[in-house]
């Protein structure tokens, strides 16, 4: 076999001919995140000029002294040297390492990839690749263990080959913002393993192959192992001591346990997660998107902190937690993933000390205020963007996470436990955010949803979020039988705050802020996610129409940008579905298809020329999943509406165990036979009474604990549109 070369075997070949929607495949377990290329392993190529394949770990950041540049979407000016502020780290995920392979056959190599086909199966958490090297073909099975820092790859060739497996800590090559992250690197000589440090964080990397390697070596920091066979296994691990003790023998133990046993257990655990619910819609691309989204929501949630980041890749804001968590959290609740939703609330419980300190130290205020962009330990994570601490609407998102967890689950013990957080958030807003304004009340100048440094008074998202925070406290106290002075003050302020919100309506839409006649996501905030006015209120109808018309015939955007924002489209589609505008809502979702990669991931932004800015953007995926859920099921108070906004082009489909107002709903529809069926189950240990809007009927159902009751079959043509004259008791 030839000596290792410094070039990567696929360079200059196949990457120029990759499918237009190609992106490396994301695999995750909440702490570990890897990108896998077209070989079924890591490759050096940048997907769409963006991500290379690396291994990242949640909360494992560049030491600030080692960071040269953040990624462009976080630091667009590219100023050097990078400005840094004490106690305000950039907290950029460190590219810890990568592992790949080369194929030698017929006495030659390495062979380049001629063709490939890949299928990711979310329900198994496994990527299957068929790779043609010309001299040999391979079927590669790849998975990242669901509960361990272990990447496993099995290569099944159609003939015996020589395979060279590589492991290399750090970056493929230093370029731009991709620089070596390690404070210290200790390379072993005898076998592919190394120790490293990221500041005080200690880590370890190791690779093994099976059958045993015939040869191996190291050149610089790059290790290789040579092995011959027709079925070859590779075990690769990167660990650190942030969440648990390092097990340097982890890959040895995995090899003893065996690939098949580990894979079977891995598939079983993923199947258990997916068993919580099921949705089938008649559109292949968005069915793939929906299934992959459910995988990603679990695969990106840190199981130790509970934090729901945008994702655990460097381009997706480096595993930071901020208001985006709400959109994924809402989708998790709707799809009956209660344990994951409650874990996200536990992140808030764990970090309340940091929120209390932030309120007191930076604002001189009482209560709780989570900083804008957080690490999994609750620390600040936005570098020199110091104006971000004046963003407050993330706290409205967190208040909604807590209150919605109660609304979907109806667990009184949960509400009692988290009530102090609802009260703490409201206390901060009463103390620091709300101000007297010309005989009324509103919100003081704050950073708005556009994240610009200029503070804006009565910014739509901030104002809507403030009202929602106060409402959540009042509603929680009604359930618990409390009567705090904070809730009494909140109730006294609500009429004035609502009047200030009403003043933002200009006759066509809700303006983004006082004095700014601008249409952006703040215009939608009173409708969703803050849900302050009925979706059928004339102001809601005209605002949604204005937003839709602003982007007529193309993907919905945000603010003044001409780029497409699937996240924004998901929010608007949810509003349209609530209004019964089924086809407009579906068109708004369908127009986001150019944002989808071949595995079902979604970009944050699609530029007018079709470029993406990143992939696997959890915020957009959560928002669009919620829109899809709203086609099938909606809730207003204790009223549940089945199939309230079915697109006319959707001939048939079904769902099982979507959650609404504490009950589980399963249903199917078939337009060809004009038939719809449904079942309602009470999963709680106490009776429930709900009003089910089903066809042209309103069924007043008293459900005993554990009861699972079928509804009368109805005609699809009789399915109703939800109406509400009095919304959420405001």
Could you explain how this protein is built, in words?
The structure is a single chain. With 730 residues, the chain is an alpha+beta fold. Among the domains are: 14-60 and 96-274, Glycoside hydrolase, family 65, N-terminal domain (Beta-galactosidase, Chain A, domain 5, Distorted Sandwich); 640-718, Immunoglobulin-like. The protein is built from 15 helices and 24 strands. It has helices at 250-257, 259-274, 284-300, 325-334, 338-350, 352-363, 393-409, 412-433, 460-480, 485-502, 521-524, 538-550, 566-578, 582-590, 618-632; strands spanning 25-28, 32-36, 55-57, 97-104, 115-121, 126-132, 137-144, 151-169, 184-187, 193-198, 201-210, 215-219, 222-240, 278-280, 434-437, 440-443, 633-636, 639-642, 652-660, 663-670, 675-681, 688-694, 697-703, 708-710. The strands form 5 sheets. Strands 4, 5, 6, 7, 8, 9, 10, 11, 12 and 13 form a 10-stranded antiparallel sheet that branches. Strands 14-19-20-21-24 form a 5-stranded antiparallel sheet. Helix 3 packs across helix 15 (618-632), helix 4 (325-334) packs parallel to helix 7 and helix 7 (393-409) packs parallel to helix 9. The protein starts with 24 loop residues before the first strand and ends in a 20-residue tail after the last strand.
Task: Describe the structure using short key phrases.
730 residues; alpha+beta; disordered C terminus; disordered N terminus; Immunoglobulin-like; five-stranded antiparallel sheet; 24 strands; ten-stranded antiparallel sheet; Beta-galactosidase, Chain A, domain 5
């Amino acid at each position: 076999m030839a000596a290792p070369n410094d070039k990567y075997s696929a360079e200059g070949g196949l990457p120029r001919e990759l499918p237009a929607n190609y992106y490396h495949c994301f695999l995750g377990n909440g702490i570990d995140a890897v990108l896998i290329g077209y070989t079924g392993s890591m490759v050096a190529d940048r997907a769409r000029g963006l991500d290379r394949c690396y291994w990242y770990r949640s909360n494992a950041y560049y030491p600030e002294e080692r960071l040269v540049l953040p990624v462009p979407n976080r630091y667009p000016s590219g100023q050097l040297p990078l400005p840094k502020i004490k106690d305000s780290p950039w907290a950029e995920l460190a590219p810890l390492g990568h592992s790949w392979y080369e194929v030698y056959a017929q006495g030659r190599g390495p062979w380049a990839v001629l063709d490939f086909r890949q299928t990711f199966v979310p329900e198994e958490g496994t990527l299957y690749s068929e790779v043609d090297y010309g001299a040999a073909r391979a079927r590669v099975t790849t998975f990242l263990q669901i509960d361990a820092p272990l990447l496993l790859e099995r290569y099944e060739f159609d003939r015996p080959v020589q395979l060279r497996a590589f492991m290399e800590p750090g970056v493929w090559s230093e370029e731009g913002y991709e620089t070596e992250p390690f404070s210290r690197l200790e390379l072993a000589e005898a076998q592919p393993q190394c120790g490293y440090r990221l500041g005080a964080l200690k880590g370890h990397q190791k690779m093994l192959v099976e059958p045993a390697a015939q040869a191996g070596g190291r050149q610089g920091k790059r290790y290789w192992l040579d092995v011959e066979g027709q079925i070859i296994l590779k075990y690769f691990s990167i660990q650190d001591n942030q969440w648990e003790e390092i097990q340097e023998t982890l890959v040895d133990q995995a090899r003893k346990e065996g690939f098949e046993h580990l894979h079977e257990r891995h598939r079983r655990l993923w199947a258990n997660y997916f068993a919580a619910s099921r949705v089938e819609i008649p559109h292949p691309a968005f069915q793939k998107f929906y299934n992959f989204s459910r995988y990603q929501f679990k695969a990106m949630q840190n199981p130790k902190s509970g934090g729901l980041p945008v994702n655990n890749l460097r381009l997706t804001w480096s595993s930071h937690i901020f208001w985006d968590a709400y959109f994924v959290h809402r989708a998790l609740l709707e799809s009956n993933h209660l344990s994951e939703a409650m874990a996200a609330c536990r992140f808030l419980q764990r970090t309340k000390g940091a929120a209390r300190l932030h309120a007191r130290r930076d604002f001189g205020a009482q209560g709780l205020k989570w900083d804008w962009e957080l690490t999994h330990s609750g620390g600040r994570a936005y570098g020199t963007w110091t104006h971000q601490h004046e963003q407050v609407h993330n706290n409205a998102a967190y208040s909604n996470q807590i209150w919605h967890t109660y609304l979907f689950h109806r667990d009184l013990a949960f509400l009692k436990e988290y009530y102090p957080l609802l009260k703490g958030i409201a206390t901060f807003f009463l103390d620091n955010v709300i101000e007297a304004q010309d005989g009324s009340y509103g919100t003081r100048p704050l950073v708005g949803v556009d994240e610009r440094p200029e503070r804006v008074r009565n910014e739509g998202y901030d104002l809507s979020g403030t009202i929602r925070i106060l409402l959540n406290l009042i509603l929680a106290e009604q359930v618990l039988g409390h009567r705090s002075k904070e809730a009494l003050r909140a109730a006294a302020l609500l009429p004035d705050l609502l009047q200030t919100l009403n003043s933002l309506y200009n006759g066509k839409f809700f303006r983004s802020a006082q004095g700014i006649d601008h249409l952006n996501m703040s215009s939608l905030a009173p409708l969703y996610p803050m849900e302050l006015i009925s979706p059928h209120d004339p102001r809601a109808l005209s605002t949604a129409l204005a937003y839709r018309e602003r982007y007529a015939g193309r993907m919905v955007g945000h603010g003044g940008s001409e780029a497409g924002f699937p996240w924004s489209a998901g929010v608007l589609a949810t509003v349209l579905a609530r209004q019964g505008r089924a086809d407009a809502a579906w068109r708004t979702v369908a127009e986001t298809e150019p944002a989808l990669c071949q595995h079902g991931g979604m970009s944050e932004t699609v530029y007018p020329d079709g470029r993406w800015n990143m992939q696997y953007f959890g915020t957009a995926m959560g928002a669009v999943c919620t829109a899809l859920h709203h086609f099938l099921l909606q809730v207003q108070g204790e009223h549940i509406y089945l199939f309230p906004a079915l697109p006319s082009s959707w001939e048939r489909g079904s769902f099982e165990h979507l959650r609404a107002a504490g009950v589980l709903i399963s249903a199917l529809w078939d337009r060809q036979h004009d038939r719809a069926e449904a079942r309602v189950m009470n999963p709680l240990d106490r009776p429930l009474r709900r009003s089910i809007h089903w066809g042209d009927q309103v069924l007043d159902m008293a459900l005993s604990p554990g009861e699972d009751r079928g509804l009368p079959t109805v005609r699809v043509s009789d399915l109703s549109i939800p109406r509400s004259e009095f919304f959420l008791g405001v």
